[in-house]
Amino acid sequence: MGKINMARVILGGLVAGIVINIGEFVLNMPVLGQRWNEAMQSLNRPSMDSVSPAFFIILCFALGILTVWVYAAIRPRFGAGPLTAISAGLIVWGLASLYPTAAMLPMNLFPRSLLLYAVIWEVFELPLAALAGGWVYKEN
């Protein structure tokens, strides 16, 4: 097994991060924005509109880099290609979306339907991001 090409992980991760940022913007602004604001208001918290998007943008790029790193890490065992990239995206989805969302359910902080929409959206978003980032990733 060769070393992971970290320069390509970062480059592919930035591409994946763009896909994630676009997906998260569409999901959390035009699609669910009003529902998120209502949920935050019910908790006596400021609306999502008042939060600086910089934190979330950086977080999405970090998730993109992590996703491509997972792809690079499993690639020697599963082979290069779209199926491996999709697998990497699903691994990251399970750890970064499904698990924390499931952990929030018993706390009843947010409407279940709101969490369900987000986790279903992301089961498509993260594999797509992994495909885009994996397409950029190359070994040395």
Provide structural commentary:
This protein has helices at 6-31, 33-42, 54-78, 82-104, 112-136. The longest helix is centred in the N-terminal third of the chain and has 26 residues, at 6-31. It is built from 5 helices and no strands. It has 140 residues and is mostly helical. It has one domain (6-136).
Give a quick precis of the structure.
By secondary structure, the protein is mostly helical. Helix content is about 80%, strand content about 0%. It is elongated.
Topology (elements, then pairings):
Elements: H1 6-31, H2 33-42, H3 54-78, H4 82-104, H5 112-136
Helix pairs in contact: 1-3, 1-5, 3-4, 3-5, 4-5
- Contiguous low-pLDDT stretches (5 residues minimum) are none
- Domain count: the total is 1
Summarize the amount of helix as a percent range.
over 70%
Strand content: under 5%
The computed structural class is mainly alpha
Total E-strand runs: 0
Terminus-to-terminus distance: 12 Å
User: What's the story with the biggest beta sheet?
Assistant: none
Mean pLDDT over the full residue set: 95
Number of helices: 5
What order do the helices and strands follow?
HHHHH
Shape annotation: elongated
Radius of gyration: 16 Å
